[in-house]
From TrEMBL:
Protein name in UniProt: Glycosyl transferase
Keyword Transferase attached: yes
Positions of the Glycosyl transferase family domain: 195-346
Keyword terms: Transferase
Ranges in a coiled coil: none
Single GO molecular function: glycosyltransferase activity
Organism: Oceanidesulfovibrio indonesiensis
UniProt entry tagged with the keyword Transferase: yes
Amino acid sequence: MANKRVVLHDYFAVPDGGGRLALTLARNLDADLVHGFRKPEHPYFTGDTPGPREKTLASGNLPFPLLQLGLIQAFSRKTAFLSRYEVCVFSGNYSVLGAHQAGSARTVYYCHTPPRFLFEELELFTRMVPKWLRPAMRSYLAGYRGRYLRSVDAMDVVVANSQTVSRRIAQNLNLNAVVVHPPCDTSSFSWCEQGDFYLSTGRLDRLKRIDTIIASFRAMPDKKLAIVSTGPEEGRIRSLCEGARNIRFLGRVSDAELKALVGSCIATIYIPTDEDFGMSPVESMAAGKPVIGVREGGLLETVIEAETGILISPGAPADELIQAVCDMTPDRALSMRKACENRAREFDVAVFMNKMRGIIDG
């Protein structure tokens, strides 16, 4: 095998930050890329940019929980070839199970977050299956948790994507982690114009609090809101928008459309629950647009209060969000443009790769 480095990532099902980071590492390190599976026509692998040499270990055409079981078995049993590499970089929750096959290679784990369903959300996850299946589910999770803990403990270096995740690693895994924030391709975002609307780009799930954003704008019919993205709560979010003339629900948009919207809004709104890191605020700032965010999780490490945005209290109370939107006038947002652009450059791909090369080269 010609390459001396390999990046392993769980799978490429939908566009997400973890997959983007793994591909960024593989391309910039000239490394091979190993994954459980990837969906055909995945947007990260289209276009003219040549991709890394890939190896697929499992099938992505299985239902839950067979898919998870397949990934566990694939990374545990089909990765003996890792011993031929000098450096193995792991990304995700399943790929790490191949660490015991790495032999004398240097092993680096980039942790997006310890899997919550094994720790703080264990009981919540277990209750998602019928009662008669719960004993089997607990047994399955206990076995996976043991393998996961042993694999992570064997790593030469553990990297966290934020201070928030670093604290979770210390609490759940009893390990110290080096913090390296994920990369943003800042050059692909730019200021377009000063539009007349605010923009929500958060994934449509319960942790992103999109319903709070909608309720707040329903109380401000003179303020315009555009909502992009998809997710498991899309149907409910669509229904919440019905009848509100000041709210546009756009759903899934292309990368080009997203960048045009970010570059043309007044400001973006991103108020997730205890976010691991959160790339959306960095992309917003890269386009010179301030962020109305929440004072918790990864946003504390990206958005600078009163310089590149406004942070409301943890829990994201609607009255504070309404006030923040009123305070973030077009003129105030425009005055933050330069500070936003400067802040975003601190998370550029070149900064990320410089830090990661230092860790990987030991």
